[in-house]
């Protein structure tokens, strides 16, 4: 295995150093790529200092804030050019536990492993009821329209086999926010990927602000509905 963790950041100065230290301490043999969306709080400066003393840490600085989807696509391409065998996506705000990352990396014989909050053993901590209901409803809405056979298609903690990413047309992935996660599952299903879910505990961030906005929610509703109507109109498929 030659895994790479991609950490997209925008103003995560309060969280990113702690997360990197935990990953380096507990996950052996893994490299990290921080894709920073032009943060103005000193996030990229901290990463550069860490990278000077830790060769496993890399920084890809964007010249503008392009959104989660574009950050991950840039990270995927960076990792594929360097022949990483597994590419991990993970939130940079400490909401994903490093111990759960370790569990996902232990899974073999897969194309995509998803850390799931909504299967037996999964859970969320410190979420208001409104947010939990929104996430549960969103995932059921996705499953109703798209039939992806995934309980948590919006989860951001994942491990992709590089062979799967090479099979996908990454330039065709246009979504942002958690719609990007849905679109990646949809694309993986289209090419017959083997997908497995592993239960995780998702924790609400302690520092900084959530990047979820009404625009992201509306994008998800619009795209999922459009994909679903296309699937139904086409007589099946994804």
Report what the structure shows.
This protein has 238 residues and is α/β, with parallel strands linked by helices. It has helices spanning 16-26, 43-53, 68-81, 98-105, 129-146, 162-167, 177-190, 214-233; strands at residues 3-9, 31-36, 57-61, 86-89, 112-116, 123-125, 158-161, 195-199, 201-203. The chain is globular. It is built from 8 helices and 9 strands. The chain has one domain (3-233): Spore Coat Polysaccharide Biosynthesis Protein SpsA, Chain A. Helix 7 packs parallel to helix 8.
Task: Set out the fold topology.
Blueprint: E1 3-9, H1 16-26, E2 31-36, H2 43-53, E3 57-61, H3 68-81, E4 86-89, H4 98-105, E5 112-116, E6 123-125, H5 129-146, E7 158-161, H6 162-167, H7 177-190, E8 195-199, E9 201-203, H8 214-233
Parallel strand pairs: 1-2, 1-4, 2-3, 5-8, 6-9
Antiparallel strand pairs: 4-7, 5-7
Task: Please give a quick description of this structure.
This protein is an alpha/beta fold and 238 residues long.
What topology, given as strand order, has the largest sheet?
3-2-1-4-7-5-8
Helix content: 40-55%
The CATH superfamily is: Spore Coat Polysaccharide Biosynthesis Protein SpsA, Chain A
Kindly identify the CATH topology.
Spore Coat Polysaccharide Biosynthesis Protein SpsA, Chain A
Determine the N-to-C terminus distance. Answer: 31 Å
Count of domains: 1
User: Main β-sheet: number of strands, strand sense, barrel status?
Assistant: 7 strands, mixed
**Basic shape:** globular
What is the rounded Rg? 17 Å
Residue windows where pLDDT falls under 50 for at least 5 positions: none
The count of DSSP E runs of length 2 or more, i.e. the number of strands, is 9
CATH class categorisation: Alpha Beta
Task: Give the class from helix and strand content and strand pairing.
Answer: alpha/beta
**Total of helices:** 8
């Amino acid at each position: 295995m030659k895994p790479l963790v991609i950490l997209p950041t925008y103003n995560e100065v309060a969280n990113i150093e702690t997360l990197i230290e935990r990953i380096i301490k507990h996950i052996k043999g893994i490299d990290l790529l921080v894709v920073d969306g032009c943060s103005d709080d000193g996030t990229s400066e901290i990463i550069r200092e860490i990278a000077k003393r830790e060769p496993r840490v890399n920084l890809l600085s964007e010249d503008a804030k392009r959104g989660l989807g574009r950050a991950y696509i840039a990270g995927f391409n960076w990792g594929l050019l360097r022949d990483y065998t597994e590419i991990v996506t993970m939130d940079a705000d400490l909401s994903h536990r490093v111990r759960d990352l370790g569990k996902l990396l232990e899974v073999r014989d897969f194309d995509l492993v998803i850390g799931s909050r909504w299967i037996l053993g999964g859970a969320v901590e410190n979420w208001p009821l409104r947010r939990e209901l929104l996430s549960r409803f969103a995932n059921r809405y996705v499953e109703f329209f798209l039939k992806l056979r995934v309980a948590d298609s919006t989860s951001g903690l994942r491990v992709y086999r590089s062979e799967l990413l090479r099979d996908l047309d990454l330039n065709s992935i246009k979504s942002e926010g958690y719609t990007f996660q849905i679109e990646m599952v949809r694309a993986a299903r289209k090419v017959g990927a083997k997908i497995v879910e592993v239960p995780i505990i998702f924790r609400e961030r302690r520092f900084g602000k959530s990047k979820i906005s009404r625009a992201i929610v509306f994008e998800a509703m619009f795209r999922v509905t459009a994909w679903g109507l296309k699937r139904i109109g086409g007589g099946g498929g994804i």
